[in-house]
Amino acid sequence: MGSEGISLDDETARSVLILDSDISPLRFGLTGVSGLPLLALDFSPRSTGDRDRWERRLGFRPAELVVVTTETRDPDAVGADAIEQVTSPSDLTGLGMKATEHLARWDDGADAVTPVVVLNSLTILFQYAGMQAIYRFLHALTTRIANSDGHGVFFLDPLTQDDKTVHTLASLFDAVARRGDDGEWTVSAR
C-alpha cells in the first residue's frame, strides 16, 4: 500500500485495525474521505478535540468532531463540537452507549451522513479491561458502525499484546494495517 493511506471509499474496509506504536510520529493517512463527522473515542493522555491534530493523524479534516474521553473539557476551548465523558476506559457499556447515540444521530433521516469512528487506543483499554470484555465490545461497536454505513479505525500497539491476542482481535475487522520498519504500510483484507 505504501505511505499514501487506506481508501475508506472501498466497502471492503469498513473497519480497520491499525497496528502501530501509539507514540509514532508518522500519521496514518485515510484517502477517499472528506467532509465526514468524526467520533473520537480517545483515552490517550493527550486526548484532544483539536481538529488539526486529527487531520494530521488521519489525513482528513472532520466536518463535525465529537470526542468521548474520561477528561472533563470545554468543547469551545479545544475546538470540538462536543465532548462527552465516561467515568473510566473500563466503562465499555457507557462508551458503547455514547457511540450508539452519535451513530444513530448521524444515521437519522434524509440528511444521513457517513461517520468515521476512531478508537485511540485499544492499548489503553487493555489496561482497564480483559480480552473477553474488549472483544465483545469491539464486536458490538464494529457491527453498529457497519449498520450505520460508517467506518471505524482502531489503533493498537502490537508490542503490548501477544500474537494470539492480536490475531483474535484482527478477526473482528475488515482489514488490518501494519507499518513496517521501513515506514511503509501493508494492509491485509479479510
Automatic annotation (TrEMBL):
InterPro entries, A to Z: DUF7504
Q: Which Pfam families does the protein's record reference?
A: DUF7504
* Entry protein name: Recombinase RecA
What is the native source organism of this protein?
Haloferax marinisediminis
